[in-house]
Design a protein that fits this description.
The protein is α/β, with parallel strands linked by helices. The chain contains 18 helices and 23 strands. It folds into 4 domains: 113 residues, Tetrapyrrole methylase, N-terminal domain (Cobalt-precorrin-4 Transmethylase, domain 1), CATH 3.40.1010.10; 128 residues, Tetrapyrrole methylase, C-terminal domain (Methyltransferase, Cobalt-precorrin-4 Transmethylase, Domain 2); 119 residues, Rossmann fold (3-Layer(aba) Sandwich), CATH 3.40.50; 127 residues, Rossmann fold (3-Layer(aba) Sandwich), CATH 3.40.50. The strands form 6 sheets. A 5-stranded parallel β-sheet has the order 3-2-6-1-7, sandwiched between helices. A hairpin with a 7-residue loop joins β10 and β11. α2 crosses α3. The longest helix has 20 residues. The termini are far apart. The model has no long low-confidence stretch (mean pLDDT 92).
């Protein structure tokens, strides 16, 4: 059998946005992804088709020893598989990628190395510390603070590196921080040299401690700092006071629970992460097409007789056009039927199918749809309103009451997920969440059902409750949760802005 190929991909320091384009393309082509502890699991979304194998190593816990990882890569490639070996940072910078590449070369396995942003460079940039600056230093050294167990850290030439290199960066040095600081001072480095220790660099959980070289070990111990962390030693650390930017984002340090359906959560999560928040996704809805589409299909055949098609969400757009495709139809089936889209996001979803909404009511609620459509309809006209199974009756009753015939087949169903994600439950139980965002009444009601009344109130009462609009707020209040955050405009963008305003105040 012809062997496959292994891509040794640098996953970068943590922020999934720092993956290279080449790395992304190789992930998308992979049949198997073998990934590390420091490779952000969100990157696996780029390879939904692939089998995933976790081989992470952290201090005191080796999920799979290195020699077995090497053997696994060879085995998979010999099965003809395209393998993405996803490694934190850069494969060839303290990542043992060189060992894996040698093993593949010796086994005759084709491989390619895709560089990644190494942790030192990213940690400095995200902490506001340029590792070189012509007014401070033009030399830089990268060191591992955790060498091969058969060697000792003391094998480093401390006399040369203590004063011979301007900026020193230590990877994996937390357990040896006392030794590092002691040796540097003993060999001539000024005790007052500024040092930064950066934990979980580039992620919303990033933390940075700064102290003089003679004090940093005690400061780190007092703060209970744990790996993974990067240690930067040098005068450039002082520039952080002027150049820090990442930890000045408006939601930095806040952890926010997002309850949208899994296939929808990414967009809103990305908005919050761009604002600096740490996001915990906790889907409380699963969206499924209607099991029996007989009524829906019959309504679609009536499209030529309809004056308006009403779509109230991006989900409605997605499921409606999927059903058209299943029937062998496309956007041409709308004929002269005009389209009402509830909100700009629904209108944007429509445009992906080549349809520009004829009407976007200024009030993004069912009541707004009725108010906007009534002057545009005559009694006896027909409209198609494909809806969610739990949609409110406002549009149907509001238009029917004016003599309009409303076809309202169920398009998709909101169902409860079997379980909530373990990490979301753990964060709630640990009190690690600052706010929870509800983007529909169903997200509130489903979470209440899953957690039960006692768990719902115990876990959520201490949090800031954010609701996308008054209908969702009403559902929260009905179930005993006071709403602290509600935007004036009922959009995800406005909800994110309302969170910023709340925490800024």
């Amino acid at each position: 059998m012809k062997p496959g190929r292994v891509y040794l991909i640098g996953a970068g320091p943590g922020d999934p946005g720092l993956l290279t384009v080449r790395g992304r393309d190789c992930l998308r082509a992979a049949e198997v992804v073998v990934y590390d502890y420091l490779a952000n699991p969100l990157l696996l979304r780029e390879a939904p088709q692939a089998e995933t194998i976790y081989v992470g190593k952290s201090k005191g816990l080796h999920h799979l020893p290195q020699n077995e990882i090497n053997a696994l890569l060879v085995k998979l490639a010999r099965q003809g598989k395209i393998v993405a070996r996803l490694k934190g940072g850069d494969p060839y910078v303290f990542g043992r990628g060189g060992e894996e590449a040698l093993c593949l070369a010796q086994a005759g396995i084709p491989f390619e190395v895709i560089p990644g942003v190494t942790a030192a460079f990213a940690a400095g940039a995200y902490a506001g510390i340029p590792l070189t600056h012509r007014d401070y230093t033009t030399s830089l050294g990268l060191f591992t603070g955790h060498e091969d167990p058969a060697k000792k850290l003391s094998t480093l030439d401390w006399a040369k590196l203590a004063t011979g290199v301007g900026t020193l960066v230590f990877y994996m040095g937390m357990s040896n921080l006392d030794t590092i600081t002691r040796e540097l001072i003993a060999h001539g480095r000024a005790p007052q040299t500024p040092v930064a220790v950066i934990r979980w660099a580039t992620l919303p959980a990033q933390q940075t401690l700064v102290a003089p070289l003679c004090e940093i070990a005690a400061v780190v111990a007092a703060a209970g700092f744990k790996p993974p962390a990067i240690i930067i030693v040098g005068e450039v650390v002082a520039l952080r006071e002027q150049l820090s930017w990442f930890d000045r984002k408006p939601l930095f340090g806040r952890t926010i629970l997002v309850t949208r359906a899994a296939e929808q959560a990414g967009e809103f999560s990305a908005m919050l992460q761009d604002l600096g928040a740490q996001v915990v996704e906790c889907p409380t809805i699963r969206l499924d097409p209607v099991a029996d589409s007989t009524g829906l299909d019959a309504a679609i055949t009536a499209l030529p007789d309809c004056s308006w098609l009403i779509l109230t969400s991006g989900n409605a757009v997605r499921f409606f056009f999927a059903r058209l495709a299943a029937l062998g139809l496309d956007a041409r089936a709308l004929g002269r039927c005009r389209v009402c889209a509830v909100g700009p996001r629904t209108a944007a979803a429509l445009r992906t199918f080549g349809i520009h909404a004829d009407l976007v009511p200024p009030d993004y609620k069912a009541e707004g749809v009725v108010e906007a459509l009534v002057p545009r309809l005559q009694p006896g006209e027909k409209v198609l309103f494909p809806r969610a199974d739990k949609a409110r009756d406002v549009i149907v009753s509001g238009l029917s009451g004016r003599g309009v015939e409303v076809l309202a087949p169920v398009l998709y169903c909101n169902t409860l997920p079997a379980t909530l994600p373990a990490d979301a439950l753990a964060a709630l139980e640990a009190g690690g969440i600052d706010a929870v965002c509800f983007t529909a009444s169903s997200t509130v009601e489903n979470l209440y059902t899953i957690l039960g009344a006692a768990g719902f109130h115990r876990l959520l009462a201490p949090l800031a409750i954010a609701a996308i609009g008054p209908i969702t707020s009403k559902s929260c209040t009905k179930l005993g949760l006071p709403v602290a955050i509600e935007p004036a405009e009922y959009t995800l963008k406005a909800l994110a802005a309302a969170l910023v305003s709340y925490y800024s105040a």
